[in-house]
Amino acid sequence: MSATQLVVVGGGPGGYAAAFLAADLGLHVALVDPEVNPGGVCVYRGCIPSKALLHVAKLIGEARHAKAWGVEFGEPRVDLSKLRAFKDNVVKRLTGGTGQLVKHRKVTYIQGTATIADPHTLRVARTGAGEETLTFEHAILATGSVPAMPPALRLDDPRVMDSTAALELPDIPKSLLVVGGGYIGLELGSVYATLGSAVTVVEMTGGLLPGADRDLVDVLAKRIGSLMTAVLLNTTVTAMAPERDGVRVTFGGPDAQLFDRVLVAVGRRPNSRIPGLDSTRVKVNERGFIAVDEQMRTDEPSIFAIGDVVGEPMLAHKASHEGRTAVEVIAGENVAFEPRAIPAVVFTDPELAWCGLTEAQAQKDGRKVAIAKFPWAASGRAITLDRTDGLTKLVLDPDSERILGVGLVGPGAGELIAEGVLAIEMGANATDLKLSIHPHPTLTETMMESAEVFFGQATHVYRPKR
Ligand code: FAD
Ligand code: NAD
């Protein structure tokens, strides 16, 4: 039996960020995760491998686009085993790094799976090496989430994949059905389509990326529409049957279609079924999320929870920040997780990003807002990139002129959105953004010029204030 001040269960971006900060603050910390090094879903089978593949897809897309500028590379020849090795090495480098950081910070890393014995005791089934009992003053549960697989989409056939299987890149199927037009469906669907698969996307609701503003999604949808073979909205899969030559899929109607592979990407389920959790006062809500307050406390005073397991948005950076909040609270600081803006980025081409209040949410809440949009067709930088399809949008309080939300679609939107987060967190108003000198020629100017649009004074668009 060993004892620690803090144990963190789960080594994803929530868990390892928490463990590292706790060690930096001088706490004695143990971190438990089944993998050999910290990283969690994000690094091993989520954000990082998908972005490595999307980087390659972007390169292929740009090489094809270059034809329009008089430069021809010809069709790419893809060496799948090399591509897989590149992706796997990216993951290895990053997880090797987190492993080193564990050692530097003297965090006790226990490779295994934890179960809860009581509010101050864990049992860890060590990977391949027996069981260990650990007592703790505080625990942070950061057990993340797993792909949701509704019964109608569950088929015991390797040709039906979840995101983890799809990231393995088993082959480039001639035809791929992607179920779910959300983050994963569009990101991984784009990778496969760019590599040569004929991709069909089916989305249950009336539009792709249901959480984002439609004017932004429209720009992405146009391009996705030309990259994919078909995008079927308001459509669900009603039956799937394995056949020798593929998976036969029925979409509500009488017709069925055969696909070489299917990727199911219909959301993720929180990993809250931790054995022994019911021996504590920790509550799990009806959607399976562990209930916490704004200090990340559960109803059991010794136990905190963070990341995907406590609720949406299921994003790595949200998990990390919650982790840091939990640790600071445990260290005795009077802090809370109260962000004004959590950025969301879909790493497609074009990228789509937003933070803070969306226009759709404002409408739903009946809140009066002003909208200022700057079309990238008026951006010098976008024209040099031959990518004028982008849009930058501000959601503002019409009276205080404060920036409440930012939305972006276009190449690099995922980098640009950070300025929006800073503006919202600092309580910036349209004048602040307008007066901040942005470098020329860059896409960042679209942020400044969208503030100028708000005043009817944008240099590069003529839109007088009414
Ligand atoms: P996780 O990363 O899920 O880690 C939880 C860890 O806990 C896992 O290692 C798990 O094995 C371990 N665990 C579970 N139970 C136990 C137990 N009982 N004992 C010990 N260990 C346990 N987010 C972004 O922000 N940007 C992106 O670009 C992005 N891309 C994604 C792409 C894909 C394909 C997927 C699937 C997800 C993506 N996400 C992205 C989401 C992101 O991965 C998650 O939001 C993030 O990993 C959540 O972090 P976490 O720390 O809460 O948990
Ligand atoms: P998602 O919630 O983003 O999208 C799921 C989509 O599937 C939705 O549009 C939903 O309407 C649709 N859907 C649900 N049931 C369906 C059905 N039966 N048939 C057809 N469509 C159906 O979920 P995801 O794409 O699986 O990703 C899970 C989560 O992982 C995301 O919500 C996000 O939090 C995280 N993630 C983030 C990134 C990123 O930050 N770039 C990338 C990948 C994943």
What is Rg?
A: 24 Å
Main structural class: alpha/beta
**What is the mean pLDDT?**
97
Percentage of residues in strands = 15-25%
Can you list the strand order of the major beta sheet? 1-2-3-4-5
Oligomer: single chain
Major beta sheet, specifics?
5 strands, mixed, barrel
Bound molecules: flavin-adenine dinucleotide, nicotinamide-adenine-dinucleotide
Q: Strand tally, please?
A: 21
SS summary, helix count: 13
Helix content: 25-40%
> Span from first to last CA?
72 Å
Task: Give the key terms.
single chain, 466 residues, binds nicotinamide-adenine-dinucleotide
Protein described:
With 466 residues, the chain is an alpha/beta fold. It has 13 helices and 21 strands. A 5-stranded mixed barrel has the order 1-2-3-4-5. Helix 3 (47-65) crosses helix 4 (80-104). It is globular, with a radius of gyration of 24 Å. Bound molecules: flavin-adenine dinucleotide (FAD) and nicotinamide-adenine-dinucleotide. Flavin-adenine dinucleotide (FAD) binds next to helix 1, strand 2, helix 2, helix 3 and strand 3.
